[in-house]
Design a protein that fits this description.
Blueprint: E1 17-18, E2 35-40, E3 48-52, E4 57-59, E5 61-63, E6 68-74, E7 78-83, E8 87-89, E9 97-98, E10 121-123, E11 142-145, H1 147-151, H2 162-166, H3 169-175, E12 179-182, E13 186-188, E14 200-206, H4 216-229, E15 233-238, H5 255-263, H6 287-302, E16 307-310, H7 313-316, H8 320-333, E17 336-339, E18 359-361, H9 363-373, H10 380-387, E19 400-403, H11 412-415, H12 452-470, E20 475-479, H13 506-511, H14 513-527, E21 543-545, E22 559-564, E23 567-572, E24 578-581, E25 587-593, E26 603-605, E27 609-612, E28 616-621
Parallel strand pairs: 11-12, 11-20, 12-15, 15-16, 16-17, 17-18, 18-19, 19-20
Antiparallel strand pairs: 1-2, 2-6, 3-4, 3-7, 5-6, 7-8, 7-10, 9-10, 13-14, 21-22, 22-23, 23-28, 24-27, 25-26, 25-28
Length: 622
């Protein structure tokens, strides 16, 4: 079993700025503080030094609840930590990281200590003053995006940065987006080759390479503030379950050198448990590991971040009490918590997750609705649950984060354009990424030579997908560019594609402007019906219908209709048209028809019939 540190209270550390030891009155006297506090957990070290770029060496000494090594360096200094005069270590509690010329991940893999001149440095920069969260007053609608990919194909010198992303916010606000969820922005190794950023180097520092300025933290905070001014929340995808150090043969930057058996889950034979599929997992029962996690969350919350989506949250849920303590912290800080409730070994969706205050990525919604969209049989009953906020999984439907697409998988266009993954460019002979995507290529694999009839069907299927997503109970999310048919050419695992495969193609936005108008109209309909984002279950407020009476739940059925609070939706995923009888009293208007999206509104009444075209959805409003 891993050795555990004693359970004692852990102090927060933000790179606390202090006056110099020989002038403790500096802060009170109004002068700028000059010292930056260090605190490092390295229980086996006999000596720890901070080595500055000017060759100054600062001896650290032990103190505090965990017997940390502590000391001070000048504000603004770049430093590395040296264990016992030999092993360089990057401060895992750094507020900022700098990579010198010649930085090499390969050099950090060697058993011998790497060259100090090329080793990453921490920057002694104080964390900014705390800023408040500002929750949106609009219905939650999540837009998942990559900071770099969002603007790399914009013609501007700062493309791919936080600063450039600020100029995208007005378009998102006009679309109806109320949450911008960013893929990880904590510092990762730029030499690792992971475009997504899911191999963190330092949990509590902002990725320097996403900044146009020399202050990545301040620039990111400006993005958060700009989003708040437009009524958009910022959520961060945080990876707090593993690190970039991989497995035994991975690079040694931080935790492995400091106390690997207290930071990582290690068995008796010294092997790392790899339930994240990355080589290691963090030991969430260990006090020093918990401190790194909660400190990082506090830092980003201090920048005004409104929510945190936890990658592979089931890793942390190995300690249910820790997950609940994060839930308590979220309530105190006023931030939303979202779980990806699985890892490589466990699937904790719904009541199996240890804290019902968290939202959860609803994998059942994704799978059932993808299957229904492509015309699979036997799904109507399951689809009815998903449309209603998955009451079989969640006490409140607003705990269900509904999605059909995300960064790790097909885009919405690729979902209706490819039967198979096409990941050859990733370098794994097309063996990486999910094999079963519940996708359908609409009769033709890919775009090359695709007939016009197939292309038209794909556009209709994308409209169907958006209807199913945005007219369901819960919190909807789609990935950046889905509103104008972004494609990755069938690559469903573009984690290392820092190129035009992953970057948003703005020419595509022009080509599919009609689809974006459709999505905007659908979002307007959603916003006009508060019952779609009511925290209470629909219960009897939702009435299910079939084409001519009760819902057809037979195995071969591929259609369903439902009414709820002034909405009447008829979904036909059969490949032939279906006549639906209007079963609900009232004066109804055809608000949307995915088979004829630009037709003017047409009135209809109970007892009359509406023909829903093949693989189409018709939406009525009163």
């Amino acid at each position: 079993m891993p050795i555990r540190a004693r359970e004692r209270p852990l102090p927060r550390h933000h790179g606390v700025v202090r006056a110099s030891r020989d002038d403790e009155s500096a802060v009170d006297g109004g002068r700028e503080p000059v010292s930056f506090a260090l605190s490092l957990y390295a229980p086996s070290a006999r000596r720890v030094e901070a080595v500055l770029d000017d060759a100054t060496v600062v001896e650290l000494h032990r103190e505090g609840p965990l017997d940390d090594w502590v000391g001070e360096v000048p504000v603004g200094a770049r430093y590395l930590l040296l264990l016992d005069g030999e092993r360089p270590v990057l401060d895992p509690r750094a507020t900022e990281v700098w990579f010198p010329p010649g930085h090499s991940r390969a050099a950090a893999r060697t058993a011998a200590p790497p060259d100090l001149a090329a080793f990453p440095r921490a920057v002694a920069r104080p964390w900014p003053a705390s800023r408040p969260q500002r929750h949106t007053d609009r219905p939650l609608l999540v837009y998942e995006a990559h900071v770099r990919g969002l603007t790399m194909r914009r013609d501007r010198p700062d493309a791919g940065t936080f600063r450039a992303a600020i100029d995208e916010l007005p378009r998102l606000s006009g679309l109806g987006v109320s949450v911008l969820e960013l893929l990880p922005v904590h510092q990762f190794d730029p030499d690792e080759g992971n475009y997504w950023g899911y191999m963190p180097l330092v949990f509590g520092a902002v990725h320097r390479q996403y900044a146009a300025s020399d202050d990545p933290t301040a620039e990111f905070a400006e993005l958060v503030a700009a989003a708040h001014d437009l009524g958009i929340e910022i959520w961060l995808d945080v990876v707090l379950n593993h690190t970039t150090e991989e497995h035994r043969s991975g690079p040694t930057y931080t935790l492995r050198a400091l106390a690997e058996r207290e930071y990582y889950v290690v068995d008796h034979a010294g092997h790392y448990l790899d339930d994240a599929g990355t080589g290691n997992i963090i030991d969430a029962t260990s006090p020093p590991a918990r401190r790194l996690i909660t400190e990082a969350l506090d830092r980003f919350a201090d920048l005004g971040v409104d929510g945190f989506r936890f990658d592979l949250a089931a890793v942390l849920a190995r300690d249910a009490d820790f997950v609940r303590s994060i839930g308590d912290w979220g309530e105190r800080r006023g931030v939303r918590l979202i779980a990806e409730p699985w890892d490589m070994a466990r699937y904790l969706l719904g009541p199996d997750f240890p804290d019902d205050r968290w939202l959860q990525w609803n994998g059942e919604f994704r799978d059932d609705l993808r299957g229904f969209l492509r015309g699979e049989p036997g799904l109507v009953a399951a689809v009815a649950h998903r449309l209603a906020g998955s009451p079989d999984l969640f006490g409140s439907p607003m705990r269900s984060l509904n999605f059909l697409t995300a960064h790790d998988g097909f885009t919405m266009y690729d979902l209706v354009s490819y039967d198979h993954r096409h990941n050859e460019a990733n370098g794994w002979d097309n063996t990486d990424g999910h094999h079963d995507n519940r996708s359908w290529n609409s009769g033709w694999e890919g775009d090359d030579g695709a007939p016009d009839s197939v292309l038209a069907l794909r556009e209709r299927q994308m409209r169907n997908a958006m209807c199913l997503l945005l007219l369901s109970h819960g919190v909807p999310m789609f990935v950046a560019g889905d509103e104008f048919a972004r494609t990755q050419g069938g690559n469903n695992n573009a984690y290392n594609q820092d190129n035009e495969t992953s970057w948003i193609d703005w020419e595509r936005a022009e080509a599919f402007a009609g689809h974006e108008r459709f999505v905007r109209r659908l979002i307007e309909i959603r916003s006009a019906h508060p019952i779609l984002y009511d925290p209470e279950r629909w219960e009897d407020a939702m009435v299910l219908h079939g084409a001519g009476g009760k819902p057809d739940l037979a195995f071969e059925s591929r259609s369903i209709a439902w009414t709820v609070d002034g909405l009447y939706v008829m979904a036909n995923m059969w490949w032939e048209p279906v006549d639906f009888e209007i079963r609900q009293p009232g004066d109804w208007w055809i608000a949307l028809d995915t088979n004829d999206p630009w037709s003017p509104p047409v009135g209809t009444r109970a007892g009359t019939h509406v023909t829903v075209g093949p693989r189409s959805i018709v939406v009525l409003e009163t």
